Amino acid sequence: MKVYAVADIHGEASRLDRIEANIDRFAPDCLVVAGDIINWVKAAPVYSRLNRLPVPVLAVCGNTDPFGQEKHLRAYPNIRSLHLKRLYLGGIPICGIGGTIPVPFSSRIRLLERRLIRDARHLVDRHTLLVVHPPPYGTLDRVMGRFSAGSRAVAEIVRQCRPRVLVCGHIHEEPGSKYLHETLVVNCAMAGDSAGAVIEIGEIGHKEVYMIHENRQQ
Predict the structure, then answer these.
(1) Pair 95, 119: CB distance under 8 Å
(2) Residue 186: which residues within 8 A CB-CB, separation 6 or more?
(3) pTM for the complete prediction?
(4) What local confidence, expressed as pLDDT, does residue 217 receive?
(5) 142: number of Cβ within 10 Å
(6) Which CATH number do you get for residue 201?
(7) So what's the pLDDT on residue 141?
(8) Residue at 180 is within a domain
C-alpha cells in the first residue's frame, strides 16, 4: 500500500495545490492528514477540496482544528476521521488519535495522557499505521533546533505498542523520518519546501519512506 502523508495544511490553498499535484505524481492509495487541517476558521472550502480528491482521505484533527471537527467530517463522504478508530486499507490496519496530546503549546484540543493511552492502546499493534498530530517526545520534535516539544504520551504508546509506522506533524522545523524502537516515525509537516511523505507499506512488514521537497532535485 502506498500512503501519501501530510500534516499542517493550515487551510492554505498553496498546500492544497501541492497535495493535488503530488497525488497525480505519486498515485497513492490514500491521503493521510495528521492534523492542523484548517486554521481555526473557513473549514468548508478546505474540506470540499479534500473531498474531491481521487483517493480516500483519512484524517485526525490538530491544535488549529476547532474542537469537535470530527463530527463535521461526516458531511464529506470521501473524508474519514481516524480518531480512536481502526480501519483496514490494502490489508493494513490504520488508526488515529486526534488532538495535540499534551505538549508545551496551548491548544483547543487536549487529551489527558492516561486516558489517551487507555483508550488507544487496544487499537494499536505491531502491524498498525498510527496517525497522531504531535511527534513522540525526543523524535523529530525539536523547536528551532534547540529543545524537544513532542508528546510523552505518544512516546509511551510507541514504547508499549510498537506500531509499524507513526505519522505525525505539528513541529514544522523537523520534517523527516527516523526510527523509535522498531517504529518508523514520519513527521510530514508541510512547511518551507516540505510537501509531506510517500510511505510504502508491505503486508509482510516491509516499509519505505520518501520525503517530498518541492524545491530540491529529486
Answers:
(1) no
(2) 5, 165, 166, 167, 168, 176, 177, 197, 199, 209
(3) 0.91
(4) 41
(5) 16
(6) 3.60.21.10
(7) 94
(8) yes
- Using CA atoms of 142, 148, 151, 153 in order, give the dihedral in degrees to the nearest 10: 140
Beta bridge partners of 194: 213
Distance CA 49, CA 36 (A): 15
What is the distance, to the nearest Å, from the Cα of residue 159 to the centroid of all Cα atoms in its chain? 19
Q: Where do we find the cell 504508546?
A: 157
Examine residue 218 and state whether it is found in any structural domain, yes or no. Answer: no
State how far the Cα of 210 lies from the Cα of 107, in Å rounded to an integer: 30
Range of the domain at 41: 2-213
Chunk the chain into consecutive blocks of 10 residues (it has 218) and report each block's average pLDDT, rounded to whole numbers.
Answer: 96 96 98 92 90 97 81 90 93 88 51 66 93 94 86 90 96 95 96 95 84 72
Q: Is 55 exposed, middle or buried (0-12, 13-18, 19+ CB in 10 A)?
A: middle
Query: Distance between CA atoms of 85 and 129, rounded to whole angstroms?
Result: 12
Length of the chain: 218
Task: Classify residue 199: in a domain, yes or no.
Answer: yes
* Assigned C-alpha cell, 171: 513541529
Count of domains in the chain? Answer: 1
Which H or E run contains 184? strand 183-187
- The rounded distance, in Å, linking the Cα atoms of 183 and 165 is 5
